[in-house]
Amino acid sequence: MKNKKLIKSFSNALRGIVYAFRSERNLHLHLISTAVALAASFYFKVERFELLFVITAIFLVFITEMVNTAVEATVDLKTKEFHPLALIAKNVAAGAVLGAALFALVVAYVVFADRLKNL
């Protein structure tokens, strides 16, 4: 019985990820950025600890984007009318994504700036 619940949990989680990728245009942009960052990491043969930072930044952006999607869906479920608290919830969630994206840019700069200068 526990195995079925575990499999159902993973199945639901995968459905959530698929929904987010299908419905959120920004996740498509993040996916392209991920491909570029990973390709650059392998091209420049970055050190393992640098690769760890790149991967951490990538996952942080994806996770915050999915949480943002969940917050927006929850707020929309509660109210279709304008409400200042709904606006705050959506803006704060979007701010988390922006913070994660800025972190990713800082990581990219630290890891790749000198390598790109030396091309």
Short descriptors:
Helix Hairpins; mainly alpha; 119 residues
Summarize the topology:
Layout lengths: L1 H22 L1 H19 L4 H31 L5 H34 L2
Helix pairs in contact: 2-3, 3-4
Q: Describe it for me?
A:
The protein is an all-alpha fold and 119 residues long. The chain has a single domain (26-117), classed as Helix Hairpins (Orthogonal Bundle), CATH 1.10.287. Helices cover 89% and strands 0% of the residues. The chain is built from 4 helices and no strands. The protein has helices at residues 2-23, 25-43, 48-78, 84-117. Helix 2 (25-43) packs antiparallel against helix 3. The chain is globular and about 55 Å long. The mean pLDDT is 94.
Distance between the termini: 57 Å
**Which fold does the CATH topology refer to?**
Helix Hairpins
Q: Poorly predicted ranges (pLDDT <50, ≥5 residues)? A: none
Total number of helical segments?
4
Topology, number of strands = 0
Radius of gyration: 18 Å
Q: Based on the structure given, which CATH architecture is correct?
A: Orthogonal Bundle
Q: Would you kindly provide a brief summary of this structure?
A:
With 119 residues, this protein is mostly helical. The protein has one domain: Helix Hairpins.
